[in-house]
C-alpha cells in the first residue's frame, strides 16, 4: 500500500497530453483518496505550467480556466465558495476566511494570455481529467515553459515510469 | 485526449509552416514564436520572423499587449489560409517573450515531439 501511495503528497509534473490520458483507479472504500494511474504508477496531485487560454468565472462559486502547455489543454477548477460551503462549515471561521482570501487572490491572477504554474489534486468531471486547484503562480520568465517540458520528460523517464523494486 | 472545447495550440516553428507541412491546415490551432518585424495599427496585422521564415498575425482580438518592433512574441491562435495560399494566424492570446532562449526552445520542441511520439506508440 505504501508503494501505491509513494507519490501521494507529490505534485507530479506531467505534460498535458500525459495528464489527460490518466485512468481513474476504482476505489475500494469511500475513505480511499481519489487516484489516477498510468503504467502502474498512481498519481494524486499534479503541477502544470502553461498559457491561460480560457477563463470562466462564477462569482463566489468557482473559476474554471484552461492551461495550454503546447501538448494539450488542462481544465482547472478553483473553488471560490468556501464561505458558504457545508464542507468548510466544520472548519474554524478564521481559517476558512484565510483560505477564501487566498483563493480570491489566485483567481485575480488568472488572466488570458499569462503563463501560470498551477498545482492541485487530479480529479475528474464527466469522465474528463481536470485539476482542482490549490495554488496558482504567474510566471514571468519566458523560459519557464521550456524548463517545465524538460522537467516533465526527465521525471517521466527517471521517476514516474520506473517501477519500484 | 482533449478535455475541453478550447483547442491546444500545437507548438510549431515558423519554418514548419510551409505548404506541404502537416501543420499547414485551415483552422489548425498553433502556437508560434517570432521576432516582430512589422506592425500596422490600422489593420492590427503583425509580421513575425524566425530566420528566413515569416508569418502574418492578426492581433485584433488581443488586449493589453503593446507591440515593439524587434521584440519576440508568442501567439496562440488558428491558421487562416487565404485563397492565394498565404497564411495568417488569427491570434487569441499573445505575449512578449523577450529573454527567451530560442535555441533551447527549438531543441526542446524536437525532444517534446519525440517524447510524445514515443508515448503514443507505447500506449
UniProtKB/TrEMBL annotation, chain A:
Q: Name one GO cellular component term.
A: chromosome, telomeric region
Q: Which residues form a coiled coil?
A: none
* The protein, known as: CST complex subunit STN1
Give the keywords, sorted: Chromosome, DNA-binding, Nucleus, Telomere
Where is this protein localized, as stated in its record? Chromosome, Telomere; Nucleus
KW Metal-binding (keyword) present: no
MF terms per GO, please?
DNA binding
Q: What is its main location?
A: nucleus
From TrEMBL, chain B:
What is the top-level taxon of the source organism?
A: Eukaryota
Q: Which GO terms describe its biological process?
A: negative regulation of telomere maintenance via telomerase
Q: Which InterPro entries match?
A: NA-bd_OB-fold, Ten1_animal_plant
**Which Pfam family, giving just one, matches this sequence?**
Ten1_2
Query: Sorted alphabetically, which Gene3D superfamilies does this protein's record hold?
Result: Nucleic acid-binding proteins
Cellular component per GO, a single term? CST complex
Any single GO molecular-function term of the entry would be:
single-stranded DNA binding
PANTHER family attached here? CST COMPLEX SUBUNIT TEN1 (PTHR33905)
Q: What is this protein called?
A: CST complex subunit TEN1
The organism named in the record is Castanea mollissima (Chinese chestnut)
The taxonomic lineage of its organism, from the top, reads: Eukaryota, Viridiplantae, Streptophyta, Embryophyta, Tracheophyta
